[in-house]
Amino acid sequence: MKVTFEELKFFLEEQFPQGAAYGALEALGEGWAEMTLAVEDDHLRPGGTVSGPAMMALADVTMYAALLSRIGLVPLAVTTNLNINFLRKPVAHAPIRARATLLKVGRTMGVGEVFVYSDGMEDPVAHSTMTYSIPPEKYQN
């Protein structure tokens, strides 16, 4: 792993402070990450379900964490494609958690998938695939 859990947590707090609104880093490994979002009223949409943007944000920042575990602290690695399928209604006010796994990492791109779960439910509530652009070394750090 190119970055430790503690290093990534500090990096996200310092360089991506708005990310705290999207979830908290819970676990990190070589090419994978897990994050949790405490669902608040701000995350709900009419009908009492967690909004799509809240689930997408959690999935995106979780994939970012997984990618950084592999490539190191590269602030300019950015999402170039995000596809998400909402599979079932999450439990309102229950935390949602995401697990991102990298499928492939090259010199200029990383591709992975994220499953989003709602506490109290066994099956995933969303599944996402993402592509990240990795900048050339001269633009890293």
From TrEMBL:
InterPro entries hit by this protein: ACOT13 (IPR039298), HotDog_dom_sf (IPR029069), PAAI_dom (IPR003736), Thioestr_dom (IPR006683)
Keyword Hydrolase annotated: yes
Pfam families tied to this protein: 4HBT
Highest taxon of source: Bacteria
Keyword Hydrolase belongs to the record: yes
Protein keywords: Hydrolase
CDD domains found in the cross-reference section: PaaI_thioesterase
Domain annotation Thioesterase: ranges: 47-122
NCBIfam families, per database record: unchar_dom_1
Family of the protein in this entry: Belongs to the thioesterase PaaI family.
Alphabetical list of PANTHER family matching this protein: ACYL-COENZYME A THIOESTERASE 13 (PTHR21660:SF1), THIOESTERASE SUPERFAMILY MEMBER-RELATED (PTHR21660)
Name under which the protein is recorded: PaaI family thioesterase
Source species taxonomy: Bacteria, Pseudomonadati, Pseudomonadota, Gammaproteobacteria, Pseudomonadales
